[in-house]
């Protein structure tokens, strides 16, 4: 759906991506309202699955438009703070969607829980309606978007190394450690409710504060320093989890270690999202960002599954230690990548560092060779 969102809606009054959001946000609320009105979900499970599929499609499309609108609305030096706000919002959504609605469901039933969620989903429409979208640049208006556009993001200088090497190593380290927190606590006798309270509610509150704080710190001290501190916190959190596995840690210790890990996890996530924004070009911002984020998500899903399998064979200790090493390597590669390619200075498609969207008619078969060639220093630098 990302190329569709980038291509259509361009000439509508009120802004390109804003027009999508003004339609999609109410539609999401309507689908939730219909689900809330199902008299018996078990008896109408097929209908429920169909509505859920529609909701997922609308939600994914809305996410593309929201990301693209954010990219087109903020300056490069604001991306760290903007992504801090975005991650904080996701944590708040986790708390409300996973916590508040569950409480309402237990207290007042299915209809009240889903109706509340529908109302909360509709509220952002008011903010979207009063927030103007910046006019599209000449480059964005001239861009020709097609399905092949999703493959061209790696043609930018350094983007191939970023997506195919740096991000996978970074996310494998973070996700492998994150995915073992819940099962390791359950193995130590924690109940599902206690574990959910720690990893959803408490971690969500701390993650919200950490996300906002990280955004401010990036503006003040820069990405590199914040990334290194975040990496240190995440690695400390994973290594400090080893006593938890042995069963000798107190509850206070477990809570403290989990919070430390989530602080580092949040900081690392914001840096990755900010660099993804750097590589998102005018006219194809939705496609570019979605491609980078989707690849990272696939890597994280795979890393989570593999880490659980490896933990079953070799134990938790080996996975926590391995994930700590991987994340440290990923953070070091990120620092190297930023120093070498300086993505924050990219002008989103203008100049020699970025290929224009319309220049790419090639499909996936040329991605690897293009990515490798795009990551090499440009001609002027070689001549020097």
UniProtKB/TrEMBL annotation:
Localization: Cell membrane
Record's GO cellular component terms: plasma membrane
Signal peptide boundaries: none
Alphabetized InterPro entries for the sequence: AmpG_permease/AT-1 (IPR004752), MFS (IPR011701), MFS_dom (IPR020846), MFS_trans_sf (IPR036259)
Protein name, as recorded: Major facilitator superfamily (MFS) profile domain-containing protein
Alphabetical list of Pfam families matching this protein: MFS_1 (PF07690)
Domain of life: Bacteria
Domain (Major facilitator superfamily (MFS) profile) ranges: 1-342
Statement: the UniProt record of this protein carries the keyword Plastid: no
Keyword Ion transport listed: no
Topology within the bilayer: Multi-pass membrane protein
Keywords on record: Membrane, Transmembrane, Transmembrane helix, Transport
Transmembrane segments: 20-41, 47-69, 81-104, 110-131, 161-181, 201-219, 226-246, 252-275, 287-308, 314-336
Gene Ontology molecular function: transmembrane transporter activity
UniProt organism field: Actinobaculum massiliense ACS-171-V-Col2
Region spans: Disordered: 361-384
